[in-house]
Amino acid sequence: MRRKDMVSWTSLIAGYAQNDMPAVAIRLLPGMLKGRFRPNGFTFASLLKAAGAYADSGIGRQIHALAVKCDWHEDVYVGSALLDMYARCGKMDMATAVFDKLDSKNGVSWNALISGFARKGDGETALMTFAEMLRNGFEATHFTYSSVFSSIARLGALEQGKWVHAHVIKSRQKLTAFVGNTLLDMYAKSGSMIDARKVFDRMDNKDPVTWNTMLTAFAQYGLGKEAVSHFEEMRKSGVYLNQITFLCILTACSHGGLVKEGKRYFEMMKEYDLEPEIDHYVTVVALLGRAGFLNYALVFIFKMPMEPTAAVWGALLAACRMHKNAKVGQFAADHVFELDPDDSGPPVLLYNIYASTGQWDAAARVRRMMKTTGVKKEPACSWVEMENSVHMFVANDDTHPRAEEIYKMWGEISKKIRKEGYVPDMDYVLLRVDDQEREANLQYHSEKLALAFALIEMPAGATIRIMKNIRICGDCHSAFKYISKVFGREIVVRDTNRFHHFSSGSCSCGDYW
User: Cβ(91)–Cβ(122) under 8 Å?
Assistant: First the structure.
């Protein structure tokens, strides 16, 4: 073009920004300024979109400064683009500051703020912002609902999720795959597999993400056979199978102990011209190791076409913890320490292996190493949602306002389940103390206190849902099975790895976890 104008520059910048080439879009700006063209609102909106996709707040701040110089920063569309850019860069304090200064807020600016909090993992603020948006008379869109459901899924706040779902129904918006997938994921991660299945069955237009989300839900609940059936249905229906699909089915096989099926599906990836990635190898190592085939898992690692990562060796180490194999466990731990020295998980696992096998000198050596390197074990905590509030507990917690009542309730629970055959499992007290102290140490774990409180507060027959930030303790797992039978309750526990659904004295995991 012999003569370029404001429109031609802006069109080219917008074109690159909209076609996933943010770096090229941003590189055009200096040339535009040298030509003495002054950016307008459309230019700034495209540049800020590119900076957000580039996830570089430094470049974004420079464009923000230019918008201020050109007096475009208070425009509602530029302001929304600014807000979205800072949110995509994870700078939520700046995003909120921009939002607060907007004279005229619109649905785009509200959605950008909510999705920013959702991406940042701040579910509570995302929910509060959503409620404020509704109070201010703005209608939620598919983008709004998708961000809110993603936030609730991370929180596991089922009641909040049902409230938002009800709002979707009242709005009479058609349940698209875009919203339906996040709704399905929300119910699955909030401990309601029944509702997740209902959403899946009622969706008219299922896409590969829908099928994969349902497959992931089966995997998380340890429903291996159901996952296999679902996967085979996907194949028959002609659903596009990608690497995520195979990762989901391999995870389901690992959680369900389906070694034969898992190995078959891993080999099947070649039929679909899919190259296994490192996550697939990690899952197969977990599949073999959890089933007790530690030597086969080692051989599998040595035959990998790429260098094993810390995650691969970590999967083997976790399996050694299950089977109390200190020799292979130390070998795996050495590799993890070398590849990822800052991870606190592996040293804790190694300590647990030595302590559970009575090798206290070796356990003490690991403790000293942890102290020297500054590695600290993450404190265990459990929480339960009740009437729009969350109650959190740690082991031996006496800070709750009703602590005395909770401890008394647990005492009554303990008496009842002991009569039914519950015996505290001392193997899960990894401290060198006498039996009396070991048993006392077991009694007031965070998940037990959360359950005792839930039994006090929740009406008879109501399902109890507990979240935990680390793996559920084996003794607590045993106690919860008895409690579900004695008290006639369904108990759902979401820990860092999976779900456990206790009912009538048994668990959905089939004690394979």
Answer: no
